[in-house]
Write a structure and sequence with these properties.
2 copies of one chain form a homodimer. Chain A is an alpha/beta fold and about 350 residues long. Helices cover about 50% and strands about 15% of the residues of chain A. The first copy, chain A, has 2 domains: about 1-120 and about 285-315, Isopropylmalate Dehydrogenase (3-Layer(aba) Sandwich), CATH 3.40.718.10; about 120-275, Isopropylmalate Dehydrogenase (3-Layer(aba) Sandwich). Chain A has 11 helices and 11 strands. Chains A and B meet through helix 8 and helix 9 of A and helix 8 and helix 9 of B.
Amino acid sequence: MRIAVDAMGGDFGPGITIQGAVQASREFGLEILLVGVADIVKKEFDRVRPSGSKVTIIDAPEFVGMGEGLFSIRRRGRSSIRVGAQLVKERQAEALVSMGNTAAVVYISRKVLGALQGVNKPALSLLVPTLRGLTLLLDVGANANCVPEDLEQFAVMGKIFMTQVMGCRNPTIGLMSIGEEETKGNDLTKKAFERLQASSLNFIGNLEGKDLYSGKADIIVSDGFTGNVALKVTEGVVETFFHIARREIMKDFFAKIGLLLMKKHLKRVYKKIDYSEYGGAQLLGLNGVCIIGHGRSNPNAVKNAVRLARDFVANRVQERIQEEIAKTALAGGGSGAE
Amino acid sequence: MRIAVDAMGGDFGPGITIQGAVQASREFGLEILLVGVADIVKKEFDRVRPSGSKVTIIDAPEFVGMGEGLFSIRRRGRSSIRVGAQLVKERQAEALVSMGNTAAVVYISRKVLGALQGVNKPALSLLVPTLRGLTLLLDVGANANCVPEDLEQFAVMGKIFMTQVMGCRNPTIGLMSIGEEETKGNDLTKKAFERLQASSLNFIGNLEGKDLYSGKADIIVSDGFTGNVALKVTEGVVETFFHIARREIMKDFFAKIGLLLMKKHLKRVYKKIDYSEYGGAQLLGLNGVCIIGHGRSNPNAVKNAVRLARDFVANRVQERIQEEIAKTALAGGGSGAE
């Protein structure tokens, strides 16, 4: 199996990404296409001095910075992300893995690869750690405007991912809303509720924001606007909490000792709740495999993202999504009038 | 000034609410109408044995439970919340304070009191603690479906509250979205962005979920669906974090000692981030004053909610909202075609 890795993405520069990609090649016996500015990539690659890895460098003269907006993303016609997506399109690689600018990867991969037949909108999905394990949240930002049918398709796509890649049997599906009663929600979720209820999916009803981390459902579907806000609020809460806590604790000697004694354990907690540990976000319903790792990925997280891409390809996730979406459409869940 | 307090609301029963209301009467020299099942209220009131408070008990034979849904709320025609709202409508009280079921208070007070002239949708607003102070988030759940004009009105109403009650000069206003660029967001926020940009408000642009607790803006406007999800996600993150942290820490002797040393400080942090400390949520744009305290309110928090109601009345918040909304409509921000 051959996987293209965007060597230029990630907050820590090409070195870290290349290390992880090389490790993945060695451990999983994969062929890796390292896509990026050839000089830079070659230099970093030589520094790793890998043995037993199958790596080819593919030149892409441009790259998209982590903070760049859509305007400049559009202008970079030969960025590492675009060249990587092109490799997937031309079947020279079976998947693209990038730790780069999420908005750029979503925009470019949709543009280059397009959606699977029958899929209205490829969705960005993310595994979040919960009290009971992992829950898949989708969409987390690829589609700010959705219609009820989109949310049903997200549920179908999430189901395929959870069963095929995560080994979850008959995953439960919840709908992100503002109250558990059927009558709660906005126009979008109320109509989506009806569709999900009528489907053959294992739908357990409305969930609230606080259920995102409770593990009540294996999959939570949401429009991309709400899903993105939910995720970003999480980041904000964690950051703010640690900031205020540190400020309070540093005022007192005993509290500082206390922190010292707990440090190792708090790190372990942080690791548990840090989603960069779980391989990355997946674009479901795309006509090709594309995994977006977290910008903060260390080599190990990069390796996990590559492994996830491998599992995606090996389990034919996108093909199965296409089959299932076609079945759903036949069963009457298709593009009926909204 | 006379303020009606729903004696039956709150997770801890009438006793706690009555204690807080009596304290408020004594400290602020307010007349309190304690609304609830007379026998129960009288018994709890006698237990407090207040001196120097001006309290009258008003009988309301029914009450709404904390977990009850809209169906049963509608059936309780003589609940303490409804009787309290009626007192405000008939000008026998200048404000209603309830620690009860938020959905019930929002539903009943809107039904009984209605909106101010010119206000499309009264909004539920809440002060959240941030790194720099307090930020007002609205709407947090009263209006699941909004049009762009609603968000502009929320901004105007929030501004009046922050200037008149919180003493914040020329408050900054942010729009909850999924990226800071103007082009980011959904159809609703993109149109709301244009309206806010064109208004005379101190609009600072789009914010992301992570900015909710950063203190970047004094006011953040959002449709009620997104605002509610944002708030509930926060609850979920905090609960899950503490749960996982406790589980990890209890495994190790030294970590337990560490926790013990930090306990006092962590409690202080928790107090800082616990919004029940800040008096409660406010319904802005209602034809009458209504404050909703947190269900978990202790007597002190109840007292703070009553004080907030007093400040609301004393600073003529609702009247000023009506004036400002009328001005906005004249300035061309009115109910134009969407």
